[in-house]
Specification:
This protein is an alpha/beta fold. Helices cover 57% and strands 8% of the residues. It is built from 24 helices and ten strands. Helix 21 links the parallel strand 8 and strand 9.
């Protein structure tokens, strides 16, 4: 069934975007939609007024400025009806509300367009400050709104007599059954592939963060299939007569490694999602839209998991990461780097903030020679262009520097990209953005960066990351020989240090002492 939005609902969504564009809020909220529903002369506005909620009250509560054009230039009635699948793409900020509105409209006994009252119900069903305020201020809840929405559909009437019989077309019915069979088979493949990937993340990679993302995708599959109708899918299933069950190839049983098994199931998920997307267009554009989203998520998931595996392999022996600044070194950067390399450090970062570009280029070339001779990895801080110029193995960026996507465009696919993170949300996002490793901190006060006292993430952040993330990560910030054991006990297996080695009179000696703590 194609669900359409009423003209009033469309005007409210367009008006909500106008109001949102004039708001000072940096994060998208649902308050502009609530204001737009009150501004529009609609069923939703009538319902809110009945609960003593008007536009002025909404604007005052959520501190929303009403753009002049909202009152001077009313939204014209759209020429064409808008399908829900189009609305989900056109108004992504209100996607959750639209999905709830669709569910409410789908419960009606007769085909129903999605109106402003359904949008209001969707807003109430979406958890957030707007929903909480409506319940508190006007005692208005999704449950109470059900009666207001559905009363018009409860009237009954005698059926109209006709003097002709409706004729079914067997071919059309058969086509629909075959379409449902295809969707059912593809959904089973997708579900099975997701389960295999989830088990890999759970038992092999032990990654709670990625496993939670996969569970969300599985829930999306359930939601999408509701639009199709699970009963219809089961009724259309005919496994005994499926010619595909008797066809197999030797490659189906060839899994040379866990990684090979993982990749095979990631591809299975993507192929099944594409089949579901295309065939669902014949029955439910809403389901097709969800399957499309799932397909794109699977591409990101594939990249993230495989990056994690590759980075673990590449950095498996890198436990001590030395960040070198000339100004911190007791005898200069050269001796500190060479002595630490000789003592066992195999990961070096050039972190110079005061050198000119030309000085940094020349310095970088020298360090590149030393690290290459020692078989160590070299990272350039902040400067992807100079990382390429000196042929470094990677670049490290902070939250205020270029994003991973742009850095990747500069350094190419072969170099490592590290990202500094200061809370668990940043760490999770860095993983999804495609970072090859992350810095986690600051753990303790440090002389190399200035942070306010309340900004220290501390050991609690280290514990959070240890519990969730298996992409290689390094605890960083103020780590010394006398507090390293605390960091390791919090779950870290890799740390990044600077002044503890650079400012030491004997860099090689302190390096060996630090490395010994990893083996204790």
């Amino acid at each position: 069934m194609h669900h359409l939005l009423t003209a009033g609902a469309q005007r409210a969504l367009i008006q909500a975007e106008r109001i949102a564009s004039g708001s000072a809020e940096s994060e998208p909220t649902l308050a502009p939609l609530l204001a737009a529903l009150a501004l529009e002369e609609s069923r939703a506005a009538e319902i809110m007024l009945a609960h003593q909620i008007d536009l002025a009250l909404i604007l005052r509560e959520f501190q929303l400025p009403l753009p002049q054009e909202a009152t001077d230039s009313p939204i014209e009635t759209p020429d064409l009806p808008l399908e829900m699948s189009q609305a989900l793409q056109q108004f992504p900020a209100f996607r959750e509300v639209l999905n709830h509105a669709l569910q409410q409209a789908s419960h009606a006994d007769i085909p129903t367009e999605i109106g402003s009252e359904h949008l209001l119900w969707g807003l109430l069903a979406t958890s957030g400050k707007e929903s909480e305020w409506l319940q508190k201020e006007g005692s208005l809840s999704a449950e109470k709104l059900n009666d207001s929405i559905n009363v018009v559909f409860r009237q009954t009437a005698e059926p109209i007599g006709v003097d002709f019989a409706l004729r079914t077309v067997p071919a059309t019915v058969g086509d629909q059954t075959n379409t449902l069979r295809t969707i059912d088979a593809a959904a089973n493949r997708l579900r099975e592939g997701l389960r295999v990937i989830e088990d890999f993340l759970r038992f092999s990679l032990d990654d709670a963060h990625l496993m939670s993302l996969l569970k969300t995708t599985r829930h999306q599959l359930t939601d999408a299939l509701r639009f199709i109708g699970t009963d219809s899918l089961i009724s259309s299933r005919d496994t005994l007569n499926d010619v595909g069950t008797s066809i197999s190839t030797t490659s189906e049983f060839d899994r040379s490694s866990l990684e090979h098994l993982l990749q095979a199931n990631l591809k299975r998920v993507q192929e099944a999602a594409r089949t579901l997307e295309e065939f669902s267009k014949l029955i439910s554009p809403e389901a097709a839209s969800l399957f499309k989203q799932m397909r794109y998520v699977s591409y990101t998931l594939e990249k993230t998991i495989l990056t994690c595996i590759a980075s673990q392999r590449r950095l498996q022996d890198s436990h001590l990461y030395l960040l070198v600044s000339e100004s911190l070194c007791h005898h200069g950067a050269g001796p500190a780097i060479r002595e630490s390399l000789a003592a066992g450090v195999n990961l070096i970062q050039i972190r110079e903030k005061t050198m000119t570009d030309r000085q940094l280029l020349e310095h970088g070339k020298r360090v590149r020679e030393w690290t290459r001779a020692a078989g160590a990895t070299l990272i350039m801080n902040d400067r992807p262009d100079l990382a390429v110029a000196i042929d470094a193995d990677g670049v490290h960026v902070g939250q205020d520097e270029l994003p991973v996507r742009e850095v990747r465009q500069i350094v190419g696919p072969g170099r490592l990209i590290g990202v500094s993170t200061h809370n668990i949300e940043q760490a999770r996002q860095a993983v999804l953005d495609g970072a090859d490793y992350i810095g986690v901190g600051p753990t303790f006060p440090t002389s190399t960066k200035n942070f306010a006292e309340h900004e220290y993430a501390g050991l609690d952040f280290v514990k959070q990351v240890a519990a969730e993330i298996t992409l290689p990560w390094f605890a960083i910030g103020g780590i010394q020989a006398d507090n390293l054991q605390q960091v390791l006990e919090a779950g870290a297996t890799r740390v990044a240090v600077s002044s503890v080695i650079c400012s030491h009179a004997h860099p090689g000696q302190i390096t060996r002492e630090l490395l010994e703590q990893f083996s204790n």
